[in-house]
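Archive entry. Fields below.
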Amino acid sequence: MSEAQGHGRGADGSAKPSKRDALIEAAFELFTAHGFEQTTVDDIVRLAGVGRSSFFRHFPSKEDVVFPDHEGCLAEMTIFLQEGSGTEDPVIRVCDAARLVMRMYAGNPSFAVQRYRLTKSVPGLRHHELSVVWRYERTLADYLRRRFAHRPDGTLRADVIAASVVAAHNNALRTWLRSAGQEDPSAHMDHALRFVQNSWGPEGEARSADEEDTDDVVVLITKRKAPMWRVVRGIEATLDDR
Amino acid sequence: MSEAQGHGRGADGSAKPSKRDALIEAAFELFTAHGFEQTTVDDIVRLAGVGRSSFFRHFPSKEDVVFPDHEGCLAEMTIFLQEGSGTEDPVIRVCDAARLVMRMYAGNPSFAVQRYRLTKSVPGLRHHELSVVWRYERTLADYLRRRFAHRPDGTLRADVIAASVVAAHNNALRTWLRSAGQEDPSAHMDHALRFVQNSWGPEGEARSADEEDTDDVVVLITKRKAPMWRVVRGIEATLDDR
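PREDICTED_STRUCTURE:
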């Protein structure tokens, strides 16, 4: 889903800006010039040259015009999670689902950065954004709950992992937005999501041939009753020492 | 902070219901009878027998009267996190901070359950609640960012752990609320937070004397390049086999 040419998903597939695009463009021009609170829907439709009913056909509220692509991205994420064969590693699957959100932002960096600055300065928009983020998190958690249904603590595990993935995603997204969209978004995202995957145990980690070549063996001796975190720390210390 | 006797924190410390308590009580009576959207601030002040300006002295908005104790709880959490000596295990510290929120709910079960049902049915309240939850999460994350400032990925680690703790807390809280406040809230909370602590490695885990008695040794042999989750799974399998 490339956003580089605008936000429209016109039924005719034409590159010509749609009414929806015109409304978004007009809204951001006014928000930037006069502030979000000071701009009315009437101001937006007047500048865009479309009727008031057109606005509400595309956006339930003035807040929604600031986040025009999230509905589409949520739908895309839902389909992506439904489409799996059910044998994929669930943690990797939700990480890949989260990447769809970053891809949406990265498809239109200047818009993403403009919106980031606007959202930071308007509490009402910040609240609206939280409800969008919550819907992504619910979508990921619902998928994980299904996948973990047979496990003890399946719901708890699902909720905690979904929250971890969203937090890691948002950390990487903010880092990229603060670079004014100049840095490589996928490098930040890969790093943050790998951090989560390492905590929760992804299946099917690919290993390259040269890793195989340097493979060797670690012997760890620990007290049986040592807590797991202490064992892990011991292993990490050993593995780092190479 | 016991809430069992009401929500008031009158300057005189008296048990007599304050104007604030009267407003909360009137608001919930009206919300339950007529619905949240259908009730106005004027309706609330009329039933409570106080002036309109009293309402706005205590609550910025109609939404805030539904969550009357969160400001106090946030302040308590902030102080608790500041008061540490700086040597506590940071993960255990944020888990204990999260317990303050549960304690607030558990102090007044019937009010907590009533609010849970109301919030579930009114989208505006759900959004308001998300912004409250977000402030708790930011408070925990800010503390962890300070504690992890010297670590690589300190900010990422802080954000992910704070989100994990909040998700685990909310999972336990919802389980308790769905039991209509009948079950033991701390048992649910201990279980959920232990799940997070086991993932992130709490320091200072207490070990009882009889655990010491059964102490013995595990030898694990693993390939050096094996991913950490596979090593952990191997250890878990070994430890379970007793």
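CURATOR_NOTE: Confidence is low (pLDDT under 50) at residues 1-6, 8-13, 202-215 of chain A.
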